[in-house]
Amino acid sequence: MNLDSALQKHAEWKTKFRTAISNKEMLDDLTIAKDNCCELGKWLYGESEALYGMLESHKNCKAKHKIFHMEAGKIATAINLKKYTEAEAMLGTNTPYNKASNETGIAIVQLKKEVDTNAAQLQQPKSETFFDWSDELSVGNQFIDDDHKKLIKMINNFHNAMQEGRGKEVISKVLNNLFIYTSEHFKREEDEMLRIKYALFEDHRRKHQQLISQVENLQTDLDNGKIMLTTKVSDFLKDWLYSHILQTDKLLAAAISKAKS
Ligand SMILES: [Fe+2]
Ligand SMILES: [Fe+2]
Q1: Alpha carbons 64 and 226: distance in angstroms, whole number
Q2: What structural domains does the chain harbor?
Q3: What's the gap in Å between 124 CA and the centre of ligand 2?
Q4: Could you report the per-residue pLDDT of 9-55, keeping only the tens digit for each?
Q5: Which segments in the chain show pLDDT lower than 50?
Q6: Which ligand number lies closest to the CA of residue 211?
Q7: Which helix (DSSP H) or strand (DSSP E) does residue 15 occupy?
Q8: In angstroms, rounded to a whole number, what is the distance separating the alpha carbons of residues 102 and 89?
Q9: What is the Å distance from ligand 1's center to 228 Cα?
């Protein structure tokens, strides 16, 4: 729908009426009075509803456009009844027709602005992050927090690679990098546990080992073509890291901080 041309066409009605008056033409006043017969009207009640129906400017344009056609219909009827002086007066300034015409023009311009903005936004890729770092995830230990932030970034990369439908090799490489970094991170935590003679060492290490073997199985299945990677895998990694940080790593961080004091 070209809203610029709709704007022009509605403004042209004044000239059309004046021509009809001077040529003593007959007009289709019933159709003119309807707000769903012109090109803009068809669009407003048709395909634009689903796309822009929620916009205030769309609702406003519909309302003003309806009044415009009602007033235009009255003028067309006056012309058909050969009440030319009356019809001419109805086209003047400070008349309901003139007001409706101006307001419809403004409403079309406003709607066009919003439609253009919407179109520009739709063209931009959505930048929603799959897994966001939040303060809730901080365990209060710098090296553990930094490692977790990096892991979150890597899980996001992995998720994006899958969502964007990257090739199997790319996905496998991203997953492998994630696996390597996770192993290094676990080793750092475990070294720290040994250093402070952590009471829950065995339990914590077992949880790390479980994840490592789960990811190893995943990689093997992927390489053998047994499974297709879906976002379920990134959901699983996200959930695992999230609950491991909150339930297990926080206890470790508290013990490290206690050992320092
Ligand atoms: Fe851990
Ligand atoms: Fe951790």
Answers
A1: 61
A2: 3-123 (1.20.120), 135-260 (1.20.120.50)
A3: 35
A4: 999 999 999 999 999 999 999 999 999 999 999 999 998 887 788 88
A5: none
A6: 1
A7: helix 13-23
A8: 17
A9: 28
